[in-house]
Write a structure and sequence with these properties.
Elements lengths: L2 H7 L2 E3 L4 H4 L2 E3 L2 E7 L5 E7 L5 E7 L2 E3 L9 H21 E3 L5 E6 L6 H7 L3 E6 L8 E6 L5 E16 L5 E12 L7 H6 L9 E2 L2 H9 L1
Parallel strand pairs: 8-10
Antiparallel strand pairs: 1-7, 2-3, 3-4, 4-5, 5-6, 8-13, 9-12, 10-11, 11-12
Helix pairs in contact: 1-3
C-alpha cells in the first residue's frame, strides 16, 4: 500500500462481509468503489484485494491527480488529501476491524512559537505535525499548551503518518496528520490537575497511561 493508505489502515483487518453493503463491487479479483469527493470534479477510485490491501487514485475530470501525494502540499492539494483521508477512514470504520489497541500520547506546544488553535481553524480541524516519535493511525494525542494557557488544550486523533523524513544532525521526523476531536478550556485540565492524575512531564511527545487518558477524557 502507498503511504497514505498504509497510515489509515495500519493495525486494521478487512471484514469482507461489509464491503458490498458499503458499495464495493467485486471486479477482476478486487473489490472496487468509485465515490465523488466534496470537491467539484474530483472522484476517488478505491480497490481492495483479498488480503485487505487498499489502493486508490483521484480523478480530476477524467485525468489522474497525484498532487495530494507530494511531501510538500499547497492549500488545494492539502484539501484534496484531507477529503481522501476522510473517505478512507469511512471505509475503514465500516469495512475493517481494529487488531491493535489505541494508544494515548501527550504532545507539548508553545503558543509563543506556534498557535495550534489557529492552525486547526485554518485547516478545518486538521493539522500536519512533524513528530520525532512514530505514532499510528487511530492513536489519541492530547496537546498541552504552555503559558499563558498552561494546561491540556486539545484532544486529537492521528489520521495518517508519513514515512520518516531526515532533517538536521541526522535526526528524523514523521509527518503526522492530526484531526481535532475536542477543545478544552483552561479550567478543565490545568497542569496541576493533569500532574495529580498521572502525567509526569510535558517536555516531549510521550505515551501516557490509559488511566491518565481516561481521566482526561472524563473531563
Amino acid at each position: 500500500m502507498k503511504e497514505i493508505e498504509r497510515g489509515v489502515f495500519a493495525s486494521f483487518a478487512l471484514n469482507k462481509k461489509s464491503l458490498q453493503a458499503f458499495g464495493f463491487a467485486f471486479v477482476d479479483g478486487a473489490y472496487c468503489l468509485e465515490r465523488p469527493l466534496p470537491i467539484e470534479g474530483y472522484t476517488a477510485r478505491l480497490s481492495i484485494d483479498e488480503q485487505g490491501n487498499v489502493d486508490g487514485v483521484i480523478m480530476d475530470d477524467g485525468e489522474e491527480f497525484e498532487g495530494f501525494r507530494h511531501q510538500i502540499l499547497g492549500s488545494f492539494s492539502a484539501s484534496v488529501k484531507e477529503a481522501y483521508i476522510e473517505l478512507l477512514r469511512e471505509v475503514r470504520d465500516h469495512c475493517f476491524v481494529s487488531i491493535k489497541p489505541r494508544r494515548y500520547y501527550l504532545l507539548p506546544s508553545n503558543p509563543a512559537i506556534y498557535d495550534v488553535r489557529r492552525g486547526f481553524e485554518e485547516n478545518e480541524g486538521y493539522l500536519h505535525w512533524p513528530a520525532r516519535k512514530r505514532t499510528h493511525e487511530g492513536d489519541y494525542i492530547f496537546i498541552y499548551s504552555a503559558r499563558p494557557f498552561k494546561g491540556i488544550a486539545f484532544l486529537c486523533e492521528v489520521v495518517a503518518v508519513d514515512e520518516a523524513q531526515e532533517y538536521s544532525r541526522g535526526r528524523s521526523y514523521y509527518g503526522t496528520m492530526l484531526h481535532l476531536l475536542r477543545t478544552y478550556t483552561s479550567r478543565e485540565l490545568p497542569l496541576e490537575d493533569a500532574m495529580a492524575h498521572g502525567l509526569k512531564t510535558v517536555r516531549f511527545l510521550h505515551e501516557i497511561s490509559k488511566e491518565t487518558a481516561d481521566y482526561f477524557l472524563s473531563k
